[in-house]
Amino acid sequence: MTAEIIDGKAFAADIRARVAEQVAQLKAGHGITPGLAVVLVGEDPASQVYVKSKGRKTVEVGMESFEHRLPEETTEADLLALVAKLNADPAVHGILVQLPLPKHMNSDAVINAIDPAKDVDGFHVSNVGLLGTGQKAMVPCTPLGCLMMLRAQLGDLSGKEAVVIGRSNIVGKPMAHLLLGDSCTVSIAHSRTRDLANVVRRADIVVAAVGRPGMVTGDWIKPGATVIDVGINRIDAGEGKTRLVGDVEFDSASEVAGAITPVPGGVGPMTIACLLANTLTACCRANGLPEPEGLTA
Ligand code: NDP
């Protein structure tokens, strides 16, 4: 079998187009422009690239982008004061504090200071609790993107065996809750899981979020399974060059799977698209308007 490639780039472009259309309608019909505030503390190069890209894509869909770049030595109290200001600002519907924060800050305290209704990353403990209890939450962007791709690929997910490899608060756990919400039978695997290959072999849906290049090989995959590779790993490509690979060994897995996301060009582009979708959702909720269809969990 040769797997169908799930084109995350095209999928993300479609989501951004749908968001842009609904932003235009909000502006024309209600005079409302959704606004996303992104806060970056320090000089982490990867974070700077992400923040720049988020700002550009926010403007491209017609939203307001508010960027706050603070020096590394900013105190937690000053950051909390900025978060409080953004919480109170009616032009700001979504707030994202770029992680990781400098070591002298307590990330949990900062994230939990964000108004849960504006927590477009879905990391606030209230949103975690809402998701965990099957209530309306702001859902973390990467797992939301995975869910959207799975629904588009497979339709009804009900009754499917899903294995999520990784139990982080950012990807693994919320992914498992979302799959459970869609009535999959869900297993969460992690570094202490025994005989991981056999656990993965029973899955109709595999979501790999580990951070280990090519760990999941084709002989772990049930024929016809749908494989979502969240991993982003930079490896040595020789001659002083590097390249990005996922947690799944693409060549062998794509011989067996029914469908698979590539790295790059799979889950990655979906994360920012879902951030914009979440900002639109937050804006609609804040204004008592119907939520955008097909852009939430
Ligand atoms: P974390 O490091 O927070 O979590 C990794 C998880 O993998 C842990 O639960 C860990 O288990 C588990 N794990 C580690 N080694 C093994 C192993 N040998 N067998 C089974 N499980 C193992 O990572 P994240 O969840 O933040 O990210 C995972 C990957 O996804 C990374 O490559 C990251 O770059 C990528 N990512 C991609 C995004 C995107 O936009 N596409 C967004 C976010 C992340 P334990 O808990 O027992 O330690």
Give a written overview of the molecule.
The chain is α/β, with parallel strands linked by helices. The chain folds into 2 domains: 30-115, Rossmann fold (3-Layer(aba) Sandwich), CATH 3.40.50; 141-269, NAD(P)-binding Rossmann-like Domain (Rossmann fold, 3-Layer(aba) Sandwich), CATH 3.40.50. The protein is 41% helix and 17% strand. The chain contains 10 helices and 11 strands. It has helices at 8-30, 45-60, 76-88, 107-111, 125-132, 141-154, 172-181, 196-201, 250-256, 267-286, and strands at residues 4-5, 35-41, 64-70, 94-97, 161-165, 185-189, 205-208, 226-229, 233-238, 241-245, 259-260. Residues 142, 165-168, 170-172, 189-193, 196, 209-212, 230-233, 267-268, 271 line the site of NADPH dihydro-nicotinamide-adenine-dinucleotide phosphate (NDP). This is Bifunctional protein FolD. It comes from Limimaricola pyoseonensis.
How are the elements arranged and paired?
Blueprint: E1 4-5, H1 8-30, E2 35-41, H2 45-60, E3 64-70, H3 76-88, E4 94-97, H4 107-111, H5 125-132, H6 141-154, E5 161-165, H7 172-181, E6 185-189, H8 196-201, E7 205-208, E8 226-229, E9 233-238, E10 241-245, H9 250-256, E11 259-260, H10 267-286
Parallel strand pairs: 1-11, 2-3, 2-4, 5-6, 5-7, 7-8, 8-11
Antiparallel strand pairs: 9-10
Helix pairs in contact: 1-10, 6-7, 6-10
The structure holds NADPH dihydro-nicotinamide-adenine-dinucleotide phosphate.
